[in-house]
Amino acid sequence: MKPRLLVTILVLIVCKPLFSQTGKTVHPVGCKVSGRDQEVPSDMSAAMASFLSGLQAAIKEDHRDKVAGFMHYPLLAGSNKPVHVHSAREFIAGYDRLFPVDLRELILRQKLACIGRVGDKGFTIGNGELWFDEYDDGKVRAFTINPVMPE
């Protein structure tokens, strides 16, 4: 990912955008919300549910190869000194460093109702710890992993 795009993403997280295409602000009870204010579009709900439940199952069962299948490569990982992960093999080799326990626990606690779109940048879990979107092939995959933000 180019530095300019990374800066844009970080600005979006910090600035907490307040506008949505639907005109609604959504803050579900019990959700860790920052920088998101849009509902998951109804046509994306099934894809998001499949992505989240599949990723959670793969994490819970410690199926690293399946977790790697939910990533889009090259994957951007980290925020201070980001690295590009170019393949599932590379992701699996660095799994514990790239996908640490605190991130896995955050994803396992994630509720579908708490997933939000951030403008046209994609969807996020938590405070931008995991960014993902639907690709041209119809599959939802993660494209950026960031360290878990302290609550």
Protein model, in words:
The chain is of the alpha+beta class and 151 residues long. Helix content is 36%, strand content 17%. The protein has 6 helices and 6 strands; from the N terminus they run H-H-H-E-E-H-H-H-E-E-E-E. A 6-stranded mixed beta sheet has the order 2-1-6-5-4-3. The chain is globular and about 30 Å long.
- Percent of residues in helices: 25-40%
Give the helix tally.
Answer: 6
Would you identify the regions where 5 or more consecutive residues have pLDDT less than 50? 4-29, 34-38
Please summarize the sheet with the most strands: 6 strands, mixed
Helix and strand run:
HHHEEHHHEEEE
Principal-axes geometry comes out as globular
- Stated plainly, the CATH topology of the domain at 48-151 is called Nuclear Transport Factor 2, Chain: A
Strand content: 15-25%
User: What is the terminal-to-terminal distance?
Assistant: 27 Å
Q: What's the Cα radius of gyration?
A: 14 Å
Mean pLDDT: 78
> Structural class, from secondary structure content?
alpha+beta
The beta-strand count equals 6
Named at the architecture level, the CATH assignment of the domain at 48-151 is Roll
